[in-house]
Amino acid sequence: MLGLWQETLEASPYYRTKLRGLYTTAKADAEAECSILRHALDKIAEIKSLLEERRIAAKMAGVYSDSDPPRKTMRRGVLMTLLQQSAMTLPLWIGKPGESPPPLCGAISASSDYVAKQGDKVAARVKAVDGDEQWILAEVVSYNHSTNKYEVDDIDEEGKERHTLSRRRIIPLPQWKANPETDPEALFSKDQLVLALYPQTTCFYRALIHTPPHRPQDDYSVLFEDTSYADGYSPPLNVAQRYVVACKENKKK
């Protein structure tokens, strides 16, 4: 039967033309659907941006909704849940054919002249109570173009601290997840040194990539530096793309 169809197709220009027309129609339908989906994603991004602007305005005015309580009343469990939700809802970068992922997509760093906006989450290097320096998860309050310094709030309400930091002490977090299936170059590679948010904390620590994500919804598997283990590294722990950034320091010897 298949052989008869092939013979008919080969013998008839009509069927070849018809098949070509079906392919063309299917391609056009797929492109139209893709355009609709991109438009929908743009609208979702606009809505999220508006909600974030309202949250920041409410915070500055001292007014909070039930879903975003004041820092002084936020329980740690609630904070951890919010951080997890932020990681899960980070949009996936979906580029057009041949389009490269932009800065702040996955492992791609921000451009040298990039300035994080008010409300953006960043990794900030601050001095701890004991005098040691550590990387914490923080929220941008403002940026002074005259001094080239940020004001950031410690995201952990237990800290209740505001820090004034130079740009070199700030690392913007990714604004899109990279898709391992289409843009693997936008992900950190195995054994690459990074700063990763330790699970159930608001602090970043040095770690090695153990396994990069294989699917868009996957996390990184990382090995945190930990001297309590014989090889100097913790067992593999999962950390979302949202909370893994480049580490400019050298790998420990």
Any overview of this molecule?
It is a single chain. The chain has 253 residues and is α+β, with helices and mostly antiparallel strands. The chain is 28% helix and 23% strand. The chain is built from three helices and ten strands. Strands 1, 2, 3, 4, 5, 6, 7, 8, 9 and 10 form a ten-stranded antiparallel sheet that branches. It is globular. The model has no long low-confidence stretch (mean pLDDT 85).
* Rg from Cα: 24 Å
Structural class by sheet pairing and helices: alpha+beta
Order of helices and strands: HHHEEEEEEEEEE
Main sheet overview: 10 strands, antiparallel
Q: What is the mean predicted local confidence, pLDDT? A: 85
pLDDT < 50 runs, ≥5 residues: none
- Global morphology: globular
> How far from one another are the termini?
68 Å
Strand coverage percent: 15-25%
The helical percent reads 25-40%
Please tally the β strands and state the result.
10
Subcellular location: Nucleus
Organism: Goodea atripinnis
Pfam families: SGF29_Tudor
Protein name: SAGA HAT/Core module component
Summarize the structure.
This protein has 253 residues and is of the alpha+beta class. Helices cover 28% and strands 23% of the residues.
